Amino acid sequence: MPIQERVLTDCLEPFKGFVLSSMIFAMHRHGLDEDFERGTTLEELVASRGGLDRARTAALVDYLAAAQVIARDPGGRLTLTPLGRRFGEARPWYEMMIGGYGITFLELGEHLGQGSPPAPRVGRFVGSGSCGISMHDSIPLVRKLLATTGRDYRMLVDLGCGSGVYLTELCRDHPRMRAVGIEPDAAAVEAAREWVATQPTADRVRVEQAGALEWLASGAERPDLAVLAFVIHEVLGQEGEEGVRRLLTELFEAAPDLDLVIVDIDLQSSDEAAMKHPLAQNYYNAYYLMHPFTRQRLETRAWWEALFADCGLEIAASSLTDPAMDSTGMEVGWLLRRRAS
Ligand SMILES: C[S@@+](CC[C@H](N)C(=O)[O-])C[C@H]1O[C@@H](n2cnc3c(N)ncnc32)[C@H](O)[C@@H]1O
Asked: What residue stretches are annotated with the Methyltransferase domain (predicted)?
């Protein structure tokens, strides 16, 4: 017996979300939402943005209109709807989770087997999307932790700097500080350099292409402030616990008076009560899922805190994100120092 239309429609609800989120990212990526915000027509869009294929752009416009992301008046004028504008508020989440990890989710089934290689991801969008999200959650958290120290920092190293926003934001807060961003992904380095060049603090910031351990081995700098935001779980996935211990130990050997800020996500994916939170359902559930497929290893808050203690570090301060923005309690920030012996 053929499937009932009502059942089929219900069953295809997740599929609708898959394509819709991909099209929201496509619209943002090409800045088309800005054209729709101003108001445009298909012809103006194709003419003003040289290089767009007319038939494909028309298909995207039809799709977005049917999905009520844009509205089309009888004269063919296209404008962003309140719903379309709303999605723009979560732009960096789409950038990271679709631009960066969309390909990962699609390929995930091919990478479940023991010994299979990591699933692909797009480093540039992981770095830039993550930094965009950080403007909302992690950078305020880092500022809150640093406000407890009262120190006048002179040299920051941001290990895994992505598109570089911590460098420029923190240099704004600390006028005498210079900063270096370390980032292994070539496209993210390019994005970070482009971003830094547009900022008033550009003359105090530089970006280098390297992994965290590789940079440390070069012995280049002696920072008094270091940031590892959503990067320590990358090192744990790539180099194992031994690599993380080496990173922490060498950081403090090179700069014993260092203030180290680590921000990471507490692994709560198997806590069914925690995962019922609406933001956990709409975001963290997918966030937790893709990590083991991309050589990343998340751990619990308790696990990290035991490791820090074992590496001779003390927690000078810790905090969660502002609950007005994220009340899951899943994102944690620590300010770490070498324990006085
Ligand atoms: C999730 S992003 C975080 C970007 C930024 N720190 C933030 O908080 O938004 C993780 C970044 O770490 C970088 N990364 C991966 N492995 C690394 C390593 N071994 N050392 C330093 N950075 C690394 C990635 O390329 C990526 O840009």
From this structure: 157-236
CB neighbours of residue 27 within 10 Å: 26
- Class assignment of domain 5-89? mainly alpha
CA-to-CA distance for 330 and 278, rounded, in angstroms? Answer: 13
Can you tell me the distance from the alpha carbon of 57 to that of 78, in angstroms, rounded to the nearest whole number?
Answer: 13
Q: What is the pLDDT of residue 340?
A: 87
Within the chain, all domains assigned CATH 3.40.50.150 are found at: 123-267+293-338
Angle subtended by helix axes 13-29 and 54-66, to nearest 10: 130
What is the C-alpha to C-alpha distance for residues 60 and 27, in angstroms, rounded to an integer? 9
Residue with CA closest to ligand 1 atom 22: 160
The string of pLDDT tens digits covering residues 255-299 is 999 999 999 999 999 999 999 999 999 999 999 999 999 999 999
Q: Enter the tokens of residue 336.
A: 């770490």
Distance separating alpha carbons of residues 15 and 22, to the nearest angstrom: 11
- Where do you find CATH 1.10.10.10 in the chain? 5-89
CATH class of 123-267+293-338: alpha beta
Tell me the pLDDT tens digit for each residue of 121-170: 999 999 999 999 999 999 999 999 999 999 999 999 999 999 999 999 99
- What phi and psi values does residue 71 have, to the nearest 5 degrees? -115, 145
Nearest residue (by CA) to ligand 1, atom 11, is: 160
Q: What is the pLDDT of residues 9-38, one digit of tens each?
A: 999 999 999 999 999 999 999 999 999 999
- Give the count of beta carbons closer than 10 Å to the beta carbon of residue 293: 21
Q: Percentage of the chain with pLDDT > 70?
A: 100
